[in-house]
Amino acid sequence: MTLTLLGWRRRVAALYAAARSARDPEIGWRTWRDGRDELFAGHPDSPLDEAARAAFRGLPVAGYDPALRFDAVLEPAAPARLEIPTAADGTVRLDRLGTVGLGHEVGRIDVWWLGGYGGGVFLPLRDGTAGRTTYGGGRYLLDTVKGADLGGDDARLVVDLNFAYHPSCTYDPRWSCPLAPEGNRVTTPVAAGELLPPGGWY
Description:
- By secondary structure, this protein is α+β, with helices and mostly antiparallel strands.
- About 25% of the residues lie in helices and about 25% in strands.
- The protein has helices spanning about 5-20, 25-40, 50-55, 105, and strands spanning about 70-75, 80-85, 90-100, 110-115, 120-125, 140-145, 155-160.
């Protein structure tokens, strides 16, 4: 472990801060998209191995759709706890905070609090593209522990499906990551966010 990982997290947090402060959400999304390309291509903590980095030409991303951005009210839900084993990080604890409605495209999905020191909001999504044009285990919309935060207030979350991104385990099997639980799985395809290249990443 080195300070380069701290540098990665600072740069990710800065990309989301720029997205939150942008007056035009699409401009914020473009900043985020371009910044992720730079990190994947050149940062020592890129989830891509050296061979994949050498061939990297950018992350495949669907075009921006403003209809897929939501200022979502967090609605109450029955308490639930999940304990998810991972290969590298031990058991990850998730506690359900509530649910958010994401239009007709997705409907209502669960919002989780990720356990551990500090904690944070965790919002994964596995939609109808999973296993075809996106990773089979789903993508992440928010993970505030790692800086992936689009804003909101004490009762609302900004959830923009255009910012759906793949977890690190999509790019290399040496990584492990918590995947979308049942309350975060929908059958409707969401044609937004990061996509897989033909043939996947490995």
